[in-house]
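Possible regression after last week's pipeline update?

I re-ran a chain I had predicted before the update to compare outputs. Posting the input and the new output here so someone can diff against the archived version. Not blocking, just want to make sure nothing changed silently.
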Amino acid sequence: MAFAKTSVVCAAWLVLMAGSALAQPPASDPAPGKLPGGMEPINAKPALENTNRGGAFEFVTMVHDWGAISDEAPVKFSFHFKNTSNQTVKIVNTKTSCGCAVGAPTKQVLPPGEEAAIEVTYDPKGKRGLELKTITLETDYTPSPNVELHLKALVRPRLMVEPSSVWFGDLKLHEGKTQELSIMSRMEGFHVTGFTMNDPRFKVEQLPADKVEMDGATVDRVRFKTYFNDDASIGTYSTGLVITTNDPKNPTYTVSLAGRVVGELMPVPERMFVSMSAGKQPWTSEITVNSRTGSAFEIYSVEPIDCPAEMKVVLDVQPGSPAQPGVRNVYRVRASGLAPATVTEVRGSVRVRTNVSGMEEFTVPLMGLWRGPMGPTPGMGSPVMAPKVQPVKQ
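New output (post-update):
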């Protein structure tokens, strides 16, 4: 009867709570996995199972949740435990899944019934959102030698830049591009005092400031429009945008900007690598030069540049691929020669001349390393013989 009365009371309570919930004004649904204001819920990932038993040890807790924390200062927590087995246990090592600093256990050898603790320090600098970390204690307790401890935090940065770096991607010749950049801070009255950049191929313009939601709070946002100029020649470029602010904890912040200008032709791979196993031994290396649009083109000549004379580098170029010989939207460029007599690092390039506008002449790096003689591999018989080099034309 007691169970029946309890059930009736519980049912009445549920009805009352349901009515109370219905009486509340409807709330707007946040995006999946988000809370209002863009803040990630602390349980955005599956909840960690909190048990108290790990191997030979019994813990006060094996999971610690710092909750919402700032990224301005490290946080600490001590895991307390007791050896509840019937044998002496030694902690032989500790490992982490992150940059957490783990102090040595207060005791590394624990007889039965002995208690100890281990302190963990987590530095949230540079982090944002939900952080899950694992600490592993390795012991000599044979039945279950490893013990995993878990840490959890929701990091709310003082200053945030989106995106953290700007990549303009692969751009065609004479194709510029713009991309917007935002810097936000939870500091009251935050503003940017200046910015500098040292590469004329990139430009930046500061836009009007406004306010936005960040991690559930209204913060100041300063926006920039960044430009990659349309007059850059073929190549990869990068620079740093140095932003100065009135925030004493973040007086400067550097954002990387990068982009690559590509032409109609694409060497694959982008470098010709030479692997040499012994002095004065023959070597070969090959790349293909492809048309990005599949258009036909001509390679007029190829020649080695700044390669050591003793390597006797010769080059051969053939239209087409093994599957499609003779087609003229792809070419095979093959280099061959002799390894230097002594161990050395090889650096040079291959100059290619074509009929393609904007890529009438370009170079492909030729590089490699003399690796020394190759001995027989145990169980594999004789050493591998270097391939013979067939005569090639320039």
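Follow-up from reviewer: compared with the archived run. The longest helix spans residues 2-23. Marking as no regression found.
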